[in-house]
Amino acid sequence: MGNVFIVYSINKSVDLEDLPLPVEYIDVFRKEGIKSLYEYQREALDNIFRGKSIVVSVPTASGKTILGYLAILRAKKLGLKSVYIVPLRALAMEKYEELKKFEKYGLRVALAMGDYDSPGGYLERYDVVVATSEKMDSILRHNPDYPYELGVVVVDEVHLLGEESRGPTLEMVISRIRAVNDEVQFVALSATIKNSSELAEWLSAEHIYSEFRPVPLKLGVFYDTRIVYEDGTEEEMRRDTIVVGNIVKRRIEEGGQLLIFVNRRKSAESLATKLQRRVLSLLSPEEKDALEELAKKIDEEEYTVYSEKISKMLRHGVAFHHAGLSNSQRRLVEEGFKRRLIKVIVATPTLAAGINLPSRTVIVRDLTRYDGYGSVLIPVMEVKQMLGRAGRPKYDRYGEGILCATSEKRAEMYMDVYIRGDTEEIESQLASPRALRVHILSLIASDLVSTREDIIDFFRTTFYGHRIPADTLLGQVDAVVDFLKDNGFVEERKFIRATPMGKRVSDLYIDPESAILMEKCFSMDYDEYCVLHTISTTPDMRVVRAKKSEMESLYAKSVLHELAVSEFEVPQDRFFAAIKTANILQEWASEASQEEIIERYDIGPGDLHAIVEMAEWLLYSFGEIAQVVKYPHVRDIHNLTMRVKYGVQEELLPIVTLRGVGRVRARRLFESGFNSMEKLRNATVPQLTRIPGIGERLAREILKQAQK
Fold it and tell me: What crossing angle do the helices spanning 452-460 and 474-486 adopt, rounded to 10°?
């Protein structure tokens, strides 16, 4: 077991210049305002520079990231390669941009996200690759020997091993790297969790634990008109119909900003709307002018159901933030908050696990959520992650986290559980049937295992196997291997080998169950809607839940088409959600406007983007599997994939792929007679600029591409 360093001192520090790194690297940190290290960071670096793996468990916003960067820079100095693994794309972008600051001093940085069917061989040219855990898993499937190249693996937010959807993939990535290269140095970064020492033991790493925060955190519970803080002090507020309205007003008057977390999108929008007038009266003329410019950027973008609402809110210094917003809308909201123009963001908890967006005050208004069956309390770990956003280094002397209670009894319970209580232990999620299906096939297809005994031996090296004897998996492993055999993904004689179908499914990074559902279409006549419904029934698809009020029309739609997957082959709620999702995809590919779809199906622009992106991948996978079984309609599937990708009818495919065109301009070009590449090659700039939405610069770019 690794040593445990419990750090209480916050006064000791070491100057960055004392580190054995080139002065140019140190200068980059200095320009970011980092001149010295905290005591826990010094303890961690002592181990990093001795080549030891570490697990760092400290509160949110305590400077963990710099440890990962310094380990990468040390590896570069030694001629070793690194990967930086993160859970979310937004975080990957953030880390990539930060590491690129070292590029002018020779550090070659790559960003790897999405495109799970790419071999990734080009990544070997880079010193450090920033990747999501899913992309890294895909890289390891295509190139199982990739870990031989690595000297350092930084795992950000390693506590997400316990997260149901992402945890198994992260655990498998770590275990696969260790199976190939047991000399890799791991730098695992975690928020404070109850069993972080157990993670360190699993990774044969030193355990660095601290409760230190550079900005002290003051925590309290608000009920009725009083905030009662952990230290026993109290603060009175005037009663308010918005509940948190007077807290917001007082904190802005004191020069602060607020993040308010609620449990539903509608709640985020509703509360932000109610706070508009309160916040507007507290803005300076200069802030109002700057917010006006920010709002105009929203107005200039493609109109969505949220455009007017967000634009109006920004002018009031308020915004909401959830997954329904488009990427550009989220970026503008985050930009306005970082510039301290937006005073309040009301968000769903997804923001807490996203990019670095601290605030002086964090209010968690809702501590329950609907889990599909009823209302349940949010896990302590998740609440502490939200509260950890409070306190901006370099700006605030302290951060403040406030929980809202609806009764005195609840207030006492929240104080005991969320403020004084421990976080939950992290438990492996690897034993779920879906995780085992996906990852056992991957191990077989990558030739990392060749017998059932090999599979059990591999699982003994996982966190699951560390916590629970992997022999208990024996029955599950046998069941999964039998399932893969029965469905043609693997063959077993003396050794287990992946079939061509099994290898392709693993490389495509889809669930074998998804491939089984897709194969149901291959014996039927080609029908576009049947294909869209089939991919929407797969466990890989992010579906839109069907409402009770929609069931009758959805059932009627199912009767109109001969579907490959019946309501008896998948759970009924999944079947009807798949019909709704297929409707969305069909309308999108038939050029219904984004606004129409969003309004008709009560989703956000971000939801539509996520559905289309996943559908494109599943349709691509459908086409690849179709080639393996020699399905005669591969070309139709390819065209449908492209139509869903661009949101157009088939007649626009020859021109919509041009950069800068898009679905709306492609339709205008087509209706103006430029319906083929040949006609575009013969066009002139004046002819193209007469078409709405095409300026001279874009016209020249279109002609340049067409002539190539």
Answer: 130
